[in-house]
Amino acid sequence: MHRYRTHTCGALRDSNIGETVRLSGWCHRIRDHGGVLFVDLRDHYGITQCVVDPDSKAFSLAEKLRSEWVVRMEGKVRHRPEGTENAELPTGQVELYVADIEVLGPAAELPLPVFGEQDYPEDIRLKYRFLDLRRDRLHQNIMTRGAIIDSMRRRMKEQGFFEFQTPILTASSPEGARDFLVPSRIHPGKFYALPQAPQQYKQLLMMSGFDRYFQIAPCFRDEDPRADRLPGEFYQLDVEMSFVEQEDVFAALEPVVTGVFEEFAKGKPVTKGWPRIPFAEALRKYGTDKPDLRNPIEMQDVSEHFRGSGFKVFARMLEDPKNQVWAIPAPGGGSRAFCDRMNSWAQGEGQPGLGYIMWREGGEGAGPLANNIGPERTAAIRSQLGTKEGDAAFFVAGDPEKFWKFAGLARTKVGEELNLIDKDRFALAWIVDFPMYEYNEDDKKVDFSHNPFSMPQGGLDALTTKDPLTIKAFQYDIACNGYEIASGGIRNHKPEAMVKAFEIAGYGEQEVVDRFGGMYRAFQYGAPPHGGMAAGVDRIVMLLCGTTNLREISLFPMNQQAMDLLMGAPSEASTKQLRELHIKTSLPNK
Known about the structure:
Layout: E1 20-33, E2 36-43, E3 46-52, H1 59-62, E4 70-79, E5 94-105, H2 122-127, H3 129-132, H4 136-158, E6 162-163, E7 181-183, E8 191-193, H5 199-207, E9 212-221, E10 232-242, H6 246-264, E11 276-278, H7 279-286, E12 300-301, H8 303-306, H9 312-317, E13 324-330, H10 336-348, E14 355-359, E15 365-366, H11 368-385, E16 392-398, H12 400-417, E17 428-432, E18 437-440, E19 445-448, H13 459-465, E20 475-480, E21 483-490, H14 495-504, H15 509-515, H16 517-523, E22 530-536, H17 537-544, H18 575-580
Parallel strand pairs: 3-5, 6-9, 11-17
Antiparallel strand pairs: 1-2, 1-4, 2-3, 4-5, 7-8, 9-10, 10-22, 12-13, 13-16, 14-15, 14-16, 17-20, 18-19, 20-21, 21-22
Helix pairs in contact: 4-6, 5-16, 7-12, 13-14, 15-16
């Protein structure tokens, strides 16, 4: 018989009744029923109920067991007494009648419980992550993560992609965030960078004649904490293809992502035939470039109904041609209490307020705006929005460039407050036609809007003849339930177009050569048209596990201060280490 186990804690069934077996695992829960001890023994595979009665020679030791002790138990498998079966457990028809116990690893008093799913302070959970990972929900999330990655890998190979591994130590690159730098001992004063993404390497693979690349790639960004990204590092499904246009990328990747979602959605509907939403349309209708399409609200421009109206605040704004008034319909929100609550929320967001119209019985508009603009204009707004009795609409006015984000937040707030969002489905969409450039107000210059390596629509001709802020890129995202889960583009593979694109963003040709020498040289020697994308593994897993916290689907995450409480990172380097790296620290004054 094996030293520790003949079966796992999830393996025993009716067919094992009468067998003498050994199990090893953790004491998940211990119960004393009238002198008879019941120990739920847990391992990675499941739970088995073990019974120790006072006549057993193991009873005296069993009385000393505590939660999370690791033990070996030996005994006979028997059917549970009638009426005590547990249909929720695969092993719920049987139990182990214990004859012998060996303690393999006693446990100290626990800083957090493993049995149950009580909320516990995050700093405790992260410091004792090895205990936290024993908890069923988190343990299952991690296993689901592995299964999702397996599914991605399988589906990519079925599409003809081959998996490559690109370097981790590389050169610094302007990917839009701050690099993690690694000092070189051999080359004093010089630094490697951890890759923000394998962007240049995957493009170089296309230059090298490999046709379809993918990788489950670790990426590193030294950026401030964000709710939808773990500090420090994250993983992405990284993809690149040669001799493709935008539609080819969509045709290859949409079935992969749809298939993964369908496989792990637990029966929830998943969008088939994703809509294509231009970036500008997404901002106008939803106030975000990652819209939650489970929310049925679509905003509309209702400027004409306020132009020259009795509501002087909006009428005066509309004298400036760049200003607009957007309406946010609120189906079922036509109560004074709800409208006042939304107005207070807007003030809490730093806005002066949120104008509204309510439609009463008979279709009559009510509220200060309706009183000011009159029944004819109110009726015209109702007709345009398609609102009914008992509905409301909220209004945001000014320069859309400055208010679209707030309008999007208001749309989401209305949808949540009125329970309009269908939480039981996954709504996927392509967001397309991103702007190539944007104006950086801080630096008073034109910057790349997203990925600097994207092909501008219109190519070199557009770069040389058009206002940069009007140029769109062959760039696209995948949005799902209010999250950006993937981003990509067709690449700018022509050297002269690459130089011009960077020149517009303030980079001289020599700087392009210095910073992207590998890519620049590769483009000189026969570069195929190519494109791809990267999908966020962490966010996809988070959505499919039904959580909104990325720490619930990651093994050993840092906290929001980018500290690893389990391993004690970051930590100070020794004087010897710093001397070898030719580094002196210059710490800020406390």
